[in-house]
């Protein structure tokens, strides 16, 4: 494995070298209430079995062993429950905030690799794939499902975008639209993997395949987007030698 993100120490390990990244210390927050966890789990089970439209709040409350009043007090409506389920998974795909800009191409490769591995691992999780299938099935009857999922997908694109903006500012890659460049990196990362998983043609990738995909996507991306060409400095004109007499 060429890279590794160490969430405890805020470092990348890339090609056997430790690349230190400044990480903001996370604040300790109280864990979620048991009732909230039960409701989220029951909601996803009901959505998967019955469909988003057919699953009622009463059915969800019954499965979660809570009253409808408690359910509405915690979430308000079905879309809020779905949004919470998606946000729970999307939160695992975020790198630490306030990452400093990469100082060289090695650090840039490490950052892209760490993000790419996280995206592949979390998005291909069976629970997330189930949400994608739900969004496709309910696209016409409940477009808010797709809208909620798209918000989570946008957070991934934003993370890649921010890394590339920092890389451009540091002079590590040539100028260009970082949004388009980020889409290109994600396309290299996924290929047709997502479609195959959604169609149940294949299973989610394992660690070995994720490592291979990330390494290849990062290498191909950096090959496409090389460092800006440095303009050569004009040499000082030579002093003319006096002609021989």
Give a description of the structure.
Strand 2 (about 10-15) and strand 3 form a beta hairpin. This protein is mainly alpha-helical and about 240 residues long. The radius of gyration is 24 Å and the shape is elongated. Helix 5 (about 105-125) crosses helix 10. It contains ten helices and three strands; from the N terminus they run E-E-E-H-H-H-H-H-H-H-H-H-H. The protein folds into two domains: about 35-75, Homeodomain-like (Arc Repressor Mutant, subunit A); about 95-225, Orthogonal Bundle (Tetracycline Repressor, domain 2), CATH 1.10.357. Strands 1-2-3 form a three-stranded antiparallel sheet, covered by helices on one side. The N and C termini lie far apart (about 70 Å).
What do the pLDDT scores average to?
A: 81
CATH class call of the largest domain: Mainly Alpha
Uncertain segments: 1-12, 19-28
Number of strands: 3
Q: How far apart are the termini?
A: 71 Å
Strand-and-helix sequence, N→C?
EEEHHHHHHHHHH
Which homologous superfamily in CATH is the superfamily of the largest domain?
Tetracycline Repressor, domain 2
Total separate domains: 2
Per CATH, which architecture of the largest domain? Orthogonal Bundle
Largest sheet: 3 strands, antiparallel
Shape label: elongated
Class derived from helix and strand content? mainly alpha
Strand content range: under 5%
Task: Write out the strand line-up for the largest beta sheet, numbering strands in chain order.
Answer: 1-2-3
What oligomeric state best describes the polypeptide chains here?
Answer: single chain
């Amino acid at each position: 494995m060429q890279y590794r993100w160490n969430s405890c120490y805020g470092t990348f390990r890339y090609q056997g070298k430790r690349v230190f990244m400044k990480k903001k210390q996370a604040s300790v927050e109280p864990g979620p209430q048991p009732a909230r966890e039960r409701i989220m789990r029951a909601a996803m089970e009901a959505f998967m079995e019955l469909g988003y439209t057919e699953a009622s709040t009463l059915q969800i409350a019954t499965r979660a062993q809570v009253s409808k009043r408690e359910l509405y007090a915690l979430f308000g409506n079905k879309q809020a429950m779905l949004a919470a389920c998606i946000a729970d998974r999307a939160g695992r795909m975020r790198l630490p905030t306030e990452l400093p800009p990469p100082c060289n191409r090695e650090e840039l490769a490490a950052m892209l690799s760490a993000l790419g591995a996280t995206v592949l691992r979390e998005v291909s999780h069976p629970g997330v794939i189930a949400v994608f299938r739900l969004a496709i099935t309910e696209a016409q009857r409940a477009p808010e499902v797709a809208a909620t999922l798209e918000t989570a997908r946008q957070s991934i694109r934003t993370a890649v975008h921010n890394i590339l903006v920092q890389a451009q500012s540091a002079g590590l890659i040539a100028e260009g639209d970082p949004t388009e460049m980020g889409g290109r990196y994600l396309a290299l990362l996924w290929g047709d993997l997502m479609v195959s998983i959604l169609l149940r043609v294949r299973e989610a990738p394992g660690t070995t395949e994720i490592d291979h995909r990330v390494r290849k996507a990062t290498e191909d991306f950096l090959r496409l987007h090389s460092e800006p060409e440095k303009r050569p400095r004009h040499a000082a004109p030579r002093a003319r030698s006096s002609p021989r007499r």
